């Protein structure tokens, strides 16, 4: 019955393999399937109806208190497609079950027979990255989702420390090396995907039990573990090719971070500080970017920048971990979100202050111009706002605060670029000092 109606004429062939499997396994007697069947609707199919009809239709069957009669909810999107703050007109037709269930029903549905109820609920349209992934061939989509191409925030968070270091290593009055920025962008994209693949391989048994991660490719069966390992080898191969474009010092330094990449997924089983290991891994580019330019690392500049980035990672990933803290406690998974508990805001304030201190120290060592310090002040304001408005018991608010950290990385990168452009060029002065000292030695 369900396949014949096929969700208001949605194309069954255009759905992902996981979606087709869920529909084929559909059973009105299975409340779990009824509850989660909305995920069968691929964004690509909904997008085709958006273009044709101007609406975003979804049909979601669910079970009410174990009754055999499924209840269908039809969502109709109101407003223009470009409007990000849409509301849905939710029309629900309910067949009232036997009188034994009436006490649990809303007051509007206490009468026998079918009732029509209309409410407005918020809706989030798919992001550009999600639409891009869903337009790809169905057999490729699981691999793109495995490397989180539909969620690029992780790539940005991995890339920004690299960009900071490269921009800070630029000559006074010059823009950062665009070739290096591009090369590190490719490397960040590939290695972040490889890290996600490794993480999902380690955690596939845990992800089955966490609500937010139950639709990952290795959990829903759209990719086998063997295929994921082969895919991981390809990702690491591409990452190695990118690394080989750099000098020998960078190759050794970059390869040394692979141990952290592999070990991070295990840390949540061992310590309450897996975010610290993630910070040490994600901010390795703060060392690597400078080394790519000069063949060595200036610790007076790069070490404070690396520590600042690590504190930043602990800051935003603790917020991120609060989304899953209930499931993590039940599964015995450890994180800073669980360790900090109700004192999370106090800890976040400390890590935010440490980040700002590291950034200031790095800027002083580099002799950068005043726009950099203005951007550091803007970053401090941004972090303060996050801590002040954060609701650690609201997963949606935690997700929004986590995503906003992309702005932190961009603000700081822009400040570094402008600061290096306004940095005084002391090259001529240094040459004159050296020449004068040589003249004195010659005269002596």
TrEMBL record:
Entry superkingdom: Eukaryota
Keyword check for Coiled coil: no
GO CC term (a single one): mitochondrial inner membrane
UniProt entry keywords in alphabetical sequence: Isoprene biosynthesis, Membrane, Mitochondrion, Mitochondrion inner membrane, Transferase, Transit peptide, Transmembrane, Transmembrane helix, Ubiquinone biosynthesis
EC nos: 2.5.1.39
InterPro entries attached to this UniProt entry: HB_polyprenyltransferase-like, Prenyltransferase, UbiA_prenyltransferase, UbiA_prenylTrfase_CS, UbiA_sf
Annotated membrane topology: Multi-pass membrane protein
Keyword Mitochondrion annotated: yes
Matches recorded under Pfam families: UbiA (PF01040)
Cofactor(s) this protein requires: Mg(2+)
Main location: membrane
GO molecular function: 4-hydroxybenzoate polyprenyltransferase activity
Catalyzed chemical reaction(s): an all-trans-polyprenyl diphosphate + 4-hydroxybenzoate = a 4-hydroxy-3-(all-trans-polyprenyl)benzoate + diphosphate; all-trans-nonaprenyl diphosphate + 4-hydroxybenzoate = 4-hydroxy-3-(all-trans-nonaprenyl)benzoate + diphosphate; all-trans-decaprenyl diphosphate + 4-hydroxybenzoate = 4-hydroxy-3-(all-trans-decaprenyl)benzoate + diphosphate
Biological-process GO terms, alphabetical: isoprenoid biosynthetic process; ubiquinone biosynthetic process
Secretion signal, residue range per the UniProt entry: none
Listed transmembrane segments: 156-175, 181-202, 246-264, 276-297, 303-323, 344-364, 402-421
Compartments where located: Membrane; Mitochondrion inner membrane
Pathway info: Cofactor biosynthesis; ubiquinone biosynthesis
Family statement drawn from the similarity comment of this UniProt entry: Belongs to the UbiA prenyltransferase family.
NCBIfam families: ubiA_proteo
Summary of the function given for this chain in its UniProt record: Catalyzes the prenylation of para-hydroxybenzoate (PHB) with an all-trans polyprenyl group. Mediates the second step in the final reaction sequence of coenzyme Q (CoQ) biosynthesis, which is the condensation of the polyisoprenoid side chain with PHB, generating the first membrane-bound Q intermediate.
Designated name of the protein: 4-hydroxybenzoate polyprenyltransferase, mitochondrial
Record organism: Frankliniella occidentalis (Western flower thrips)
Record gene name: LOC113203500
